[in-house]
Every structure is written in C-alpha cells, then in structure tokens.
Write a structure and sequence with these properties.
By secondary structure, the chain is of the alpha+beta class. Helix content is 49%, strand content 20%.
Amino acid sequence: MKRSVETMQRQVRKLQEEMGQLGPVMRGSVVIIGTRNKQPYFSLNKDKRTRLIYLGQKRVAGAQAYSKNYKRLLAIVEEMTILNMELIKRDADL
C-alpha cells in the first residue's frame, strides 16, 4: 500500500521534532570490566583505537541514556532517509 505524499511529509516533520527533543548523545556503550571487581566504563572506538572512560556507579545511568539517544538518532535518520527518498522520487515538495 502506497502512502500519500502528505502522510510522508507529516511523518518527516514528526521525526524532525523527535530528533530535536532527544537531548545529549554519545556514540559508544557502557561496558563492565573486571572479573572480581567489576567496574563500569564507557567504551568508544575512535580512529581504530578503543577509548575507555571510567564511569563509577553515579554516571552509568547518564551514559546509558546518552548512548540510547544516539541509537534512536540513527534510527530516526534511517527512517527519514527512506521517507525523503520516496518523496524525491515522487517529485514532491520537501
């Protein structure tokens, strides 16, 4: 079933609004390192090197939220790309 141009444009505006409300984003993830004394770190692969930041228990929730925001941002961009490609294909006003 094909969606109408107006429906797709409305979805794009909704996604843009959601993107604007995401808040802080960070690429990477929270990892637990250690066998006996498990410690939380934020892990990021940058320039072919893994970078670790010690979080402690106080900052774990914030780092997880930032990482989750980043993943949602990527999902929004992917969804918007599909919609915008279809709109361009139909020669609709963006």
